[in-house]
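Please complete every field before forwarding. Incomplete forms are returned to the sender.

SECTION A: IDENTIFIERS
Entry label: holo-71
Bound molecule: zinc ion
Molecule representation: SMILES string

SECTION B: INPUTS
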Amino acid sequence: MAKTSYARVCIEVDTKCTYPDHATVVLDEKRTFKIPFEYNRKPQKCARCDIFGHNNQNCPKLKEGKEKGRG
Ligand SMILES: [Zn+2]
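SECTION C: PREDICTED COMPLEX
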């Protein structure tokens, strides 16, 4: 079978998303398929602020803490 099939989907993610690289699908309770995922874009997210827009390393709160020196 020299056929390539794919589906492009638009998904909504929250800041807890771990971007899984595959999903396992079971058909007829016996045939199992592993469906790989590719992501066009993974938005930067910050676990500290719980928002998108920057990542943990570039978090403004991280700099604030260091500059003030009081944590
Ligand atoms: Zn942040």
